[in-house]
Structure formats: structure tokens, C-alpha cells
């Protein structure tokens, strides 16, 4: 029996309408055609793997939901019509549908289509509740192996009502323990503060940002275009050799170059000015290929400077990233939690109460998810290596109003193969990133600062 984690429950609530459902998607782009039999074999192997799971509500409301093996899956979708290479992103968007539903055990779908240049595009869509990016990578790697380490059966079957009740009581007791400890600690702290004068608190450091010009933004916001906007979507494929050489030339790494590009995009789009600091959220995972968890990714915040357009030095970004990772590791080793309220308490609250809670804001400009160099047993399907792989997460139904409430910014993913580094970007500022074309122009301008050239999907 496997209980869902806090992050899993967060994404489940999004499926229930508290926010927007989040779906992850990988796209493999091949220069040659793939046979339907090879794709069918991958689908069958994925069906036996950890993506094939269903979430089941507890008998006791205070217990966590549980994962069980799913006995169903969405069929492999093979397009009969050739997709023009200029329409890959449109086709990719069409693969994300409400049929992908973790509560019905259909939390993922595999699809493929022939391309007008003779190649093939393959899509794997997954509810973020079912798997994060590293979970999807692990699932495909397991599917591509002859010796499979874990399967959906390892999640356990649906228990009887009596067994479920007994297990739920045990889970509730386990969840209540940290809550009681937190309440006792708070009470002790309150008593000590009443007995002694309280020392002044040092506020948490916040990145410095100037007041950017909002006049054009205000005009757009008043024009009532919120219902027509959806997050702009850009995919650019860069030669891997050029990318690595550029990172080394300017004193950085692949990761620091990626963060520098995203910071420059914020500056070029008018969200920040040189001399400001921006905080980015960097996903980090130590997942083992056999882990049963759906979401094991942790977020590391990093503050970086906004440079002048002509400044290509990456050493500051590299230093800031290293410092953030070292600090994160130290906090993990010391068992320091950043949560003001125990996660089990939040997880116990019903949706109706959670929906009324204010959404916390961490001041981040957005997400920079660097998946690094993808392993061969993920990049290869049916013995054929993909030229490039693109990854992203998307909020279904996100509109301008919800994006403004979150503070705008952008989210981006970098995925590397032997031949290419592919960056996928979603603009989340409806007033400065209004269309795909507008965002692409900014991306092209920023890439040119480092003399980088790529092809756009």
C-alpha cells in the first residue's frame, strides 16, 4: 500500500479546480519514421509500469489518499495525418486532454505522428499528480529495459473496506504526531515570549527589484483581453556542441547559461532592469529509477543579478547557483524545514477550506528546470535515437487573470541529447508576453547576445 505525498495531493486539488490542472509533456523528435509496432511495444511496457496508477480516496477522511495499480490505460494514439513541422507545438497542445485523469487510472497517454520532413514526433503526456519529470524519465527507462525493476503491481491492490479502515487509522495517527509536536512547540514558544521581551526579527532577504514601467501594462490590462490570452509557448533547439562551448567560453556551465538566458529574457521583456536581482526556482531530484514516489522533486531558490544586455559573463550565475545548492544541502542535512505549518495538517484539510486559503507567493520570477543530459534508454525508442527531446509542464485553463495573480514571469525547461539542447518556454506575463510570436522575438534577441542560433519548432 502506497500513500500519496503532499505534492501529489497538491496536484490532485488542482484537478479538483483549486487552481489549474498541471500536465507534464515530453516530446521526442526523430529524423526518421518509427514503426507502429515499436511504439505499441513501448505503450505496453508503460502500461505495466508505475505511470499506470490510480488515486483512491481514504475511508477515514483524516487519512491520506492511496495509490493502487490501475487496470486500464488510454490507448496509443497514432495520427493518420502528417503534421507539418511548423505545427508541432499545435499538435503537442492537442495531446493534453481531460481524458488524462489520475482518479480514473488514466493518468498518462502516449501519441505519435509522422512529420512533413519524413521524421516522427512522439508525445508522452502525464498528469503531474502521477509523475514529475524525473518520474516520467524513470518510467520510460524502465519500459525500455528487459529486466524491469518495479511495476504498477508494487503499488499494491485496492484493499477491502475493513483493511482500508484499519490502515487509515494507522495513517491518521502517523499524520497527527508531527501536528501535535508543532502545536506543543508553538505553545512553548508563546509562553517563553510572554516571559521575556521579544528580540527583533530579521526579515528574510528578498531580491532587489526596481519599479519597472507599468503604463503599457495597465493599458493592456484595462483592454479586457484576459479571456483571449493563454501562456505563449516557444520551443528552440540549439546545437549541443555550440551550447557547451558558449557556456565554457563565458565562465559558466550548461545550468548557469540557462539561468542567465532566462534572466535576460525577463530584462528584455521589461520585467526587470539591470542592477536588479531575480529569484528563480530550480527543481532538483535525486530519484532512483526504482522509486515508487510520484513526485520527489524539491525546489531550490537561487537569486541572480540582472546584467546589462552586453554583459555575457556567467561566473556570477555559476557562483550563485553553487551557493544555493550548498545552502540547500546544509539545510537538508540539518533537518531544517521551511514550512510554517506542518504539511500533514494542510493535507488533512478538505478542499472547501483549502480553496479559501490565500495562495502563498515566494517572490520567484519563475521556474528554470534543467533536466541535464538525458540517458540513452530514455532518448531511444525502438532502437532509434531521437535527435532532440523537449519537456514542459503546462497549466490547463490558465488565463490572464490567474497569471497576474501569480505575478507573471516565465517557466522554462532545458533537455539535452548528444546532438541538441532544447529549451521550452512558457511566458506567464500576459501584459509583456502576449503571444507566441512576441515571446519568440525576445528569445531570439537574447540568444543573439551569446551568438547562439537555433531552430524553432
Q: How much helical structure, as a percent, in the residues?
A: 25-40%
Approximately what portion of the residues adopt beta-strand conformation? Answer: 15-25%
How many distinct helices? 14
CA-based shape? globular
Strands of the largest sheet, in order across it? 10-9-11-15-16-8-17
Compute the separation of the termini in Å.
42 Å
Mean pLDDT: 90
Q: What structural category do the secondary elements indicate? A: alpha+beta
- pLDDT < 50 stretches: 200-204
Question: Strand count, sense and closure of the main sheet?
Answer: 7 strands, mixed
What would you report as the Rg, rounded to the nearest angstrom? 23 Å
How many beta-strand runs?
17
What do you see in this structure?
With 457 residues, this protein is of the alpha+beta class. The protein has helices at residues 6-15, 36-47, 88-94, 133-143, 161-195, 215-222, 240-249, 254-268, 315-334, 343-348, 351-354, 376-379, 400-406, 436-449, and strands at 2-3, 22-30, 53-56, 66-69, 77-78, 108-114, 120-127, 233-239, 277-284, 298-305, 366-373, 380-381, 384-385, 388-395, 410-416, 420-427, 455-456. The strands form 4 sheets. A 7-stranded mixed sheet has the order 10-9-11-15-16-8-17. Strands 5-6-7-2-14 form a 5-stranded mixed sheet. It has a 3-stranded antiparallel sheet with strand order 1-4-3, with no helix packed on it. Helix 2 packs across helix 4 (133-143) and helix 8 (254-268) crosses helix 14.
Amino acid at each position: 500500500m502506497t500513500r500519496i505525498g503532499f505534492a501529489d495531493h497538491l496536484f490532485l486539488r488542482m484537478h479538483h479546480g483549486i487552481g489549474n490542472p498541471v500536465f507534464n509533456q515530453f516530446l521526442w523528435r526523430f529524423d526518421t519514421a518509427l514503426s507502429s509496432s515499436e511504439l505499441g511495444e513501448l505503450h505496453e511496457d508503460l502500461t505495466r509500469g508505475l505511470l499506470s496508477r490510480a488515486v483512491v480516496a481514504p475511508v477515514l477522511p483524516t487519512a491520506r489518499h492511496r495509490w493502487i495499480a490501475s487496470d486500464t490505460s488510454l490507448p496509443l494514439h497514432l495520427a493518420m495525418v502528417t503534421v507539418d513541422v511548423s505545427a508541432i507545438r499545435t499538435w503537442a497542445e492537442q495531446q493534453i486532454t481531460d481524458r488524462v485523469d489520475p482518479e480514473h487510472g488514466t493518468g498518462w497517454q502516449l501519441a505519435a505522428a509522422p512529420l512533413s520532413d519524413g521524421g516522427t514526433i512522439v508525445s508522452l503526456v502525464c498528469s503531474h499528480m502521477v509523475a514529475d519529470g524525473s518520474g516520467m524519465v524513470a518510467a520510460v527507462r524502465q519500459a525500455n529495459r528487459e529486466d524491469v525493476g518495479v511495476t504498477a503491481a508494487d503499488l499494491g491492490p485496492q484493499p477491502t473496506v475493513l483493511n482500508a479502515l484499519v490502515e487509515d487509522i494507522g495513517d491518521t495517527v502517523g499524520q497527527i504526531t508531527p501536528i501535535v509536536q508543532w502545536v506543543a512547540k508553538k505553545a512553548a514558544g508563546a509562553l517563553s515570549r510572554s516571559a521575556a521581551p521579544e528580540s527583533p526579527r530579521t526579515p528574510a532577504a528578498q531580491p532587489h527589484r526596481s519599479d519597472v514601467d507599468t503604463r503599457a501594462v495597465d493599458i493592456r490590462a484595462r483592454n479586457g483581453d484576459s479571456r483571449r490570452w493563454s501562456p505563449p509557448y516557444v520551443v528552440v533547439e540549439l546545437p549541443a556542441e555550440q551550447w557547451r562551448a558558449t557556456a565554457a567560453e563565458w565562465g559558466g556551465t550548461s545550468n548557469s547559461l540557462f539561468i542567465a538566458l532566462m534572466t535576460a529574457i525577463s530584462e528584455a521583456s521589461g520585467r526587470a532592469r539591470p542592477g536588479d536581482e531575480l529569484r528563480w526556482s530550480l527543481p532538483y531530484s535525486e530519484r532512483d529509477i526504482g522509486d515508487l514516489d510520484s513526485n520527489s522533486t524539491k525546489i531550490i531558490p537561487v537569486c541572480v543579478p540582472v546584467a546589462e544586455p552586453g554583459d555575457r559573463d556567467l561566473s556570477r550565475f555559476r557562483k550563485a547557483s553553487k551557493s544555493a545548492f550548498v545552502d540547500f544541502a546544509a539545510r537538508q542535512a540539518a533537518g531544517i524545514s521551511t514550512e510554517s505549518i506542518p504539511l500533514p495538517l494542510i493535507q488533512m484539510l478538505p478542499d472547501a477550506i483549502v480553496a479559501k486559503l490565500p495562495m502563498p507567493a515566494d517572490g520567484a520570477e519563475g521556474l528554470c528546470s534543467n533536466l541535464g543530459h538525458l540517458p540513452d534508454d530514455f532518448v531511444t525508442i525502438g532502437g532509434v535515437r531521437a535527435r532532440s527531446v523537449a519537456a514542459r509542464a503546462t497549466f490547463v485553463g490558465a488565463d490572464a487573470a490567474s497569471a497576474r495573480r501569480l505575478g507573471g514571469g516565465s517557466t522554462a525547461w532545458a533537455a539535452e541529447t548528444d546532438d541538441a539542447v532544447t529549451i521550452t518556454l512558457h511566458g506567464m506575463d500576459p501584459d509583456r508576453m502576449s503571444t507566441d510570436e512576441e515571446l519568440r522575438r525576445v528569445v531570439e534577441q537574447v540568444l543573439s547576445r551569446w551568438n547562439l542560433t537555433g531552430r524553432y519548432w
